[in-house]
Specification:
The protein is of the alpha/beta class and about 425 residues long. The protein is about 40% helix and about 15% strand. An eight-stranded parallel barrel has the order 3-4-5-6-7-8-9-10, surrounded by five helices. A two-stranded antiparallel ribbon has the order 1-2. It starts with 6 loop residues before the first helix and ends with a strand. The N terminus is likely disordered.
Amino acid sequence: RKVPCTMAAGFLLQFASAPAVVAPRRHPAVVGRASTIGGTPAVTDRTAVGTLSLPSLGIGTIAWNGKTEEDKARIAGVAAAAQARGLDFFDTAERYGASPLSLIPAALAGLGLPVDKSYLGGDCESNLAEWGRGATVATKFTPTPWRRQASDVVDAARGSCERLGVDSIDLYQLHMPDIIQPFRAFGVVDRKDEIYWDGLAEAYKSGLVRNVGVSNYGGALLERAQEHLARQGVPLVSNQIAFNLLCRREGSLATLEKGNELGVRTLAYYPLAMGLLTGKLAARNLRQAVLEKRVSPQRAADLCRYLEGGSGGTAGDIPRNGVLPLLEAVSDVAAARSKTPAQVALNWVMCKGAIPVGGASSVSQVEDNLGALGWRLEPSEVGQLDAAADDLPFDFKGAGFQTTDSKFVGYGFERWVLN
């Protein structure tokens, strides 16, 4: 039910409850015929990331935080189905699963107030100790104002190990640059990025983590991080950013290309632009979902703007018919390939040299995602889709309080810039 709340609490409720959608020469993907073992191409269509061999498509787990026994059973079934089909790469973070009320103290601590700052979430990590047993799991460290030493990264990695039930983490990533600067308006900025890089190095050398990566880094910061870690003998293997057919401008494509140049693999979140690229979203259904309290009004309003056109919200100014021209191009390629639009959109991300990391809330979504593996679009098809995307005068920026270039941190949004 809807209850009155402060602006900060309202933002946090929305942020926490929304369901966290030609291959370069430096990154040859390991692509083969569809495996006869279990009939799944995920066994052979794999990509090397550091010391890991990953399916060329990952699963994000931000929404894998069941509140009821029915939800937990459903998510456990999805995880089991994914692993059985070879989709055994799960991406999570220490802050995934945080309740709105628990995030408020964390945000206040960012302002330097004397409140409990020990809880950042971790529920998804704890769930993956059971649901993700045997899978390759990547998780993330959250930069915060009170984490001021390299040892804080090591301690956080140790905590993630305990929640995940492992001795070492397959891939440990910084969740974002050190953008949480609550006193920026007063001219006080205290960036600790290099300290966090040192922490990654210490965690790597101690054996707590097998591979290290970053998230939401633009090309310049990515190169700095790689050079800093290389001086300590630590390879930087990945950078996770928002990237899809609708999200290529404002530095995303340039960042991916810089990663290709540096030999740093790009992991692409929102690969289906929150469902917009599946061809299944309809404005009337989104509005009905709001009435049934299954989708927040802010999220639905933004997604409707992308579909129909309009102004405001996170989406900004979208012309009439929104993404329709691009969806028509995707559907044409899909029909010619006997694939779904979602499979084509995911495959396009792979063709650019990235690993798409999309959500999966049902076994049917796992099956559909699986159909993106074991083949690649022809260069002419990639060019056709590129041209259709170029014709759109806007980029996907997220929906509601989930955006492609910022995090809500209690007192407001803090942003990063890829370009």
